[in-house]
């Protein structure tokens, strides 16, 4: 049985939020609209737990609006390839992990973006699970296009719901946010379902929370391995279920510049401007298993890294990083609140406030 490396894409490998950026380029006030839908996604997936709804379904909800404003497969491919921003060291880390063990990307991102990223990193697309998107197969009448454009303009002006710490149901939201959630429910799950545009939501399934877990299971089965031999690196609500799945089965669950959802389910937190920590933890895990990672993190220093990783990281650290070791900590009940705040703040600084605040 072999160790397996699995990582999310946007966050650990790239700084982009491709769907957010596409919405911003294609739709007037698209950034505001996407932010609203992203927070609505958090409410649906984590608070209401709507039947059949999965974390990451923002990528379903934004599609009818992109189609209304002229998005085509070719346009999405061009826009997605225009500005792929890799986390420093990401290409080198992916190459190192592939040399050590079977390595995979499991991402909610659209395939157009993932293909561009794979070209930049020389990562095989055969080792990627992502969201398939073919907008060209959908046709919507002109009156629906105008209605979708009107909704887009209206919704972009609404404030994104804020979820209080400890909230357990929609009644824990402020009154105005409860009203916004119910209005969005009416648009997406009632009115739009009676339109041709509703097919764009129903017929395309993002690789969200539950699908990412299924992807991890598929990877394990195809490689004749076990969950305890998996390293999973994630950063957001779409990774929370996979992080929990791996952690509960004694695998290595890592939050990389994660938000509150990732910190809640991961076992180790990384706060870093580069991928050095992913490389170090991956080598340590491959050399000595999870216990080796625990010992290393408990005594996080250059000397400990050299002892655990030997020469495997020497060339990489000399060539790419030449910086101090990033912050890496085991997540405990004692430090979880502190790490959540520090990681969320760091995430916004590294990826920008607009992207960093998305679920």
In short:
Helices cover 55% and strands 9% of the residues. The protein is an alpha/beta fold and 359 residues long. The model has no long low-confidence stretch (mean pLDDT 92).
Any overview of this molecule?
The protein is an alpha/beta fold. The protein folds into two domains: 4-15 and 86-132 and 207-356, HAD superfamily/HAD-like (Rossmann fold, 3-Layer(aba) Sandwich); 18-80 and 134-202, AF1437-like domain superfamily (AF1437-like domain fold). Helices cover 55% and strands 9% of the residues. It has 18 helices and seven strands. It has helices spanning 18-26, 30-48, 58-61, 63-68, 73-82, 90-100, 111-121, 142-155, 175-191, 198-202, 209-222, 237-248, 260-265, 276-298, 302-309, 314-321, 336-351, 353-356; strands at 4-7, 103-110, 128-131, 230-234, 252-256, 268-271, 327-330. Strands 3-2-1-4-5-6-7 form a seven-stranded mixed beta sheet, sandwiched between helices. Helix 12 links the parallel strand 4 (230-234) and strand 5. Helix 11 crosses helix 12 (237-248) and helix 14 (276-298) packs across helix 15. The longest helix has 23 residues, at 276-298. The protein is globular, with a radius of gyration of 20 Å. The two termini are 35 Å apart. The relative contact order is 0.15. The model has no long low-confidence stretch (mean pLDDT 92).
């Amino acid at each position: 049985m072999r160790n397996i490396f699995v990582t999310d894409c946007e966050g650990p490998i790239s700084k982009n939020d491709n769907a957010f950026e596409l919405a911003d380029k294609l739709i007037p006030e698209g950034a505001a609209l996407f932010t609203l839908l992203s927070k609505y996604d958090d409410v649906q997936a984590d608070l209401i737990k709507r039947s059949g709804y999965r974390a990451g379904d923002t990528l379903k909800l934004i599609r009818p609006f992109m189609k209304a404003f002229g998005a085509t497969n070719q346009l999405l491919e061009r826009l997605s390839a225009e500005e792929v921003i890799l986390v420093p060291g990401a290409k080198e880390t992916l190459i190192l992990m592939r040399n050590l063990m079977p390595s995979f990307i499991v991402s909610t991102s659209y395939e157009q973006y993932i293909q561009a990223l794979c070209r930049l990193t020389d990562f095989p697309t055969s080792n990627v699970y992502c969201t398939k998107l073919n907008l060209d197969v959908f046709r919507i009448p002109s009156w629906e296009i105008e209605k979708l454009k009107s909704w887009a303009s209206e919704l972009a002006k609404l404030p994104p719901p804020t979820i209080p710490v400890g909230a357990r149901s929609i009644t824990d939201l402020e009154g105005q946010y409860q009203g916004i959630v119910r209005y969005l429910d009416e648009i997406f799950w009632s009115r739009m379902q009676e339109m041709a545009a509703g097919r764009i939501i129903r017929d395309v399934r993002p690789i969200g929370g539950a699908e990412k877990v299924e992807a991890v299971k598929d990877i394990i089965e195809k490689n004749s391995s076990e969950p305890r031999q998996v390293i999973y690196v994630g950063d957001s609500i779409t990774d929370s279920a996979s992080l929990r799945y791996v952690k509960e089965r004694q695998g290595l669950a890592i939050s990389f510049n994660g938000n509150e959802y990732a910190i809640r389910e991961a076992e180790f937190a990384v706060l870093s401007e580069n991928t050095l920590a992913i490389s170090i933890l991956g080598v340590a895990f491959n050399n000595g298993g999870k216990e080796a990672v625990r010992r290393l993190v408990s005594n996080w220093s250059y000397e400990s890294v050299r002892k655990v990783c030997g020469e495997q990281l020497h060339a990489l650290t000399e060539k790419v990083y030449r910086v101090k070791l990033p912050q890496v900590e085991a997540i405990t009940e004692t430090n979880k609140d502190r790490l959540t705040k520090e990681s969320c703040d760091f995430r916004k600084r590294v990826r920008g406030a607009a992207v960093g605040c998305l679920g």
